[in-house]
Amino acid sequence: MRKSVLIVASFTTMALLLGGCQSSLTGDSYSRDEARRVQTVRMGTIESLRPVKIEGTKTPIGGGAGAIVGGVAGSAVGGGRGSIVAAVIGAVAGGLAGSAAEEGLTRTQGVEITVREDDGSMRAYVQQVQQNEIFRVGERVRIMTVDGTSRVTH
What we know:
Elements: H1 2-19, E1 40-54, H2 60-75, H3 81-106, E2 108-117, E3 122-128, E4 140-146, E5 149-153
Antiparallel strand pairs: 1-2, 1-4, 2-3, 4-5
Helix pairs in contact: 1-2, 2-3
């Protein structure tokens, strides 16, 4: 009974940690460091759009949390030396599963927006798809850049 409570608590902790790893890559999201900074604004016309997948994060948190959960779950198997071996195997497997879970949970749908800017240059920008924002080929857009981070907006 006590071990099952530990396992449930471990999985809950892992889910909360992984949920905190997500960051927004939409065109209207700014980091605290970007707020109140001067941005360069360019104008252009959308030439093409392409759906893309943006990989999820790969921090040590997912693997570490998975290893802890796997180790706790593995230690519940058997007794004595068997319990130790199961804990080690559980920790390794949990670490791999936690890392994969973190990447999968933070993966997102994106869009590659190719823009012909008013100076004649052609550039592509990738950002997360925002639910209420629809870009169309031929549409005029603004490209805002601050410290090397660019975003396309209407």
